[in-house]
Amino acid sequence: MCTNRFLSGYSSDAWSIASRRNLQRLWQLLLSRLL
Predict the structure, then answer these.
(1) From what superkingdom does this record's organism come (predicted)?
(2) Which residues, 6+ apart, have CB-to-CB distance to 17 below 8 Å?
(3) Distance between CA atoms of residues 24 and 18, nearest Å
(4) For the chain, how are helix, strand and coil distributed in percent, rounded to 5?
(5) pTM of the complete model
(6) How far apart are CA 35 and CA 18, in angstroms?
């Protein structure tokens, strides 16, 4: 149970970080196209 919770928490954190990076890249692409 503890290992599963740890893995789930770690995966969620990694996904959140990856999503943030993807959002930043998308914003940069949109801004570059608009400008």
Answers:
(1) Eukaryota
(2) none
(3) 10
(4) 95, 0, 5
(5) 0.50
(6) 26
Give 1-35 pLDDT, tens digit per residue.
466 776 677 777 877 888 889 999 999 999 999 87
b vs e for 11-33, b when ≥16 Cβ sit within 10 Å of the residue's Cβ? eeeeeeeeeeeeeeeeeeeeeee
Number of Cα atoms under 13 Å in the Cβ half of residue 6? 3
Give residue for tokens 């999503």.
19
How is residue 4 written in tokens? 């599963």
The tokens of 31 are what?
């801004």
